[in-house]
Amino acid sequence: MKALRIHALESANVVSKAGCEQLVRLLRSYDETHQVVVLSPLKEEKLELASLLTLAKERDERLWSVQEQRFKAWNGVIESVLPIALSSEVIARIKSGFSDIEDLLRSVWLVEEISEPVVRHTERLVSGWVADLVCHWALFQEIDARIAQYDQLTEALVANHSLLIVYGTLPQGEATNPTEERSEYAASHLAGRFSASGVTFWNNTALLKSADEREVPSAQVIRTLSYSEVSELSFFGSPIIDPQALLPAIRREIDVQLRFWGDEQDPGSIVSKEGNGAERDRVKGFSIIRQVALINVEGSGMSGVVGTASRLFSAMRRANISVILISQASSEYSICFAVPQCEMEKARLTAREEFARELDEHLIQSIEAENNLAILAAVGKRMTGQAGIAGKFFSSLGRAGVNVIAIAQGSSETNISAVIKSEDSKRALRALHARFFLSKQALSVGLIGPGSIGSTLLGQIATESERLKSQFGLDIHIRGIANSKKMLLDRDGIDPATWKARFEAEAVELDLERFVHHIGATYFPHSLLIDCTTSSDLALASTSSRPTRRPAPRRWSTTTASSTPRCAPGAASSMRRPSGRPCRSSGRSRTWCRPGTASTASKASSAARSPGSSPPTMPRSPSPAWYARPRRWGILNPIRGTTSPAWTWGARWSSSPGRSAILLRSMTSPSTAWCPSSCAPSRLTSS
User: Fold this and answer.
1) pLDDT tens sequence across 135-155
2) How far is CA 555 from each of CA 551, 578, 589, 593, 605, rounded to the nearest angstrom?
3) Which pick of 131, 144, 148, 661 has the fewest CB atoms within 10 Å?
4) Dist. CA 307–CA 312, nearest whole Å
């Protein structure tokens, strides 16, 4: 039945009027003429009845008062959702159900034991009340709806009604925790059974993103995935994917839609057989498994010996230990494997028992375990056959200072996994996400002083941001705006066109240290602070609040004569070569100086310095400056939109190759701002 869509939904989402209204809106947004909603068992604390069984087993005298509270809570829900004409029928069913429950509770009280059929009957009873509520609301909205138990569902029943609300004892995947009954597997099974056009899994956690949003706030929603990609992500702990639930749909090649109940406007992610081959991203996402231990078996006696790996992993199977990752050197000198940290000691002892003879004869030198590790995985079907992906992966970890302990990659190249220290996992995840998903010219920008100059700059950014991104790859995120008293922070970015309204409504008390730390977030490749104030105190304070301090330039250069009587502003220095305008003195020499220090530089000796000599001691520029984060900077393209130039170019400074900045000096106020030196001064002109 191709005009059929199956939905998997948590019952807790629809035990309110708002939830029922949202469900009807969502159902009407789909094109399918027939839809089935499969409800999971209710886990709502104030409405569930499982706790009554526990109280009865313990012969707790509070049982009867709690039972009365549950009955009143259910009556309140029904009366708040349904009109009186419809609610009476549902309330009568609930009242009858509570009478049955009371008899069961008395039986449990007497025998002090809870049987599995009693638990199932109670869950089925509560799920039926939720289904009845949803069904009556749909009828009230003029939708042809009916309820049905899962084991009584037939194709004729599905075909004869626009909407079926399914409840009852639902089948679960083999590896699903029995205490966490879900509706996804049952919905996927029904989709295959009735040849549905699609199945939608609704979750209450989040959209499926390229990384955990709690650790990488800039993570992006993954719009399309293949079956292999979603299986890899689910194995590595993606919280909204149940790998077992996908199996029935995968067997019948049915598309699965992953959506977030908290954002009904977002279409979520589509999982299909091949995914979307037109997408440019070769890596779809990153996942981490924490609390992992690594068992390492080493010994020259393993080389060339047939069956060593078989013995090792057969022993793990007999001990019922799950092996997460395996890595072996081609020399066969060592083999290591990862297990859950809680099973580390058991796995180590099992391996030592299996190879006790080899250890005694020194054919195997050691069997050791290391804990507090994590497995970081990059997943993407389009990585297959693409040169440089692994290099990009490991070079990013290296630049982030993350040591890789073990590596594993399947021949399909869909997954690259690395074992790292747990304490490095967040830094590693952010570094990889920034390298693979953020633009090379992505800027985390903080603006201090949104007065006339700052407001003009924000307006220019609002006007030109789309063009800068499309034509030059410059992705500007205004992540913070502050004045002398308040600040507004946003982890994704503030719209520069509407910042004033948000600033007035959401700004909090200024904390300059927190502001600088927020702008210098490690998951952005570049950070930029712009000081548009006239306050040198604020500038100095923000400079002192920067997370790290850049070293002073060490390599100096000289050139030949100048007749200028004093040092002029705009001098430059570079670790690689003299790449800016020299500081001109009255002698026959030119020396390279730091930016913004011309007045001090003029007091320094103007004698010629040979290459490699130490520079004179000069104060740091009072600007809060770009160097709050010592990273490589991309091209900052021109920002236009005024009838006359708003900024002129000042000095340029670099402390290492590829890291340089140019001082922007306002022509209308003493404000300054630091920008990457690859900006061409000739481009910063009026439109």
Assistant:
1) 999 999 999 999 999 988 998
2) 12, 10, 17, 11, 17
3) 144
4) 9
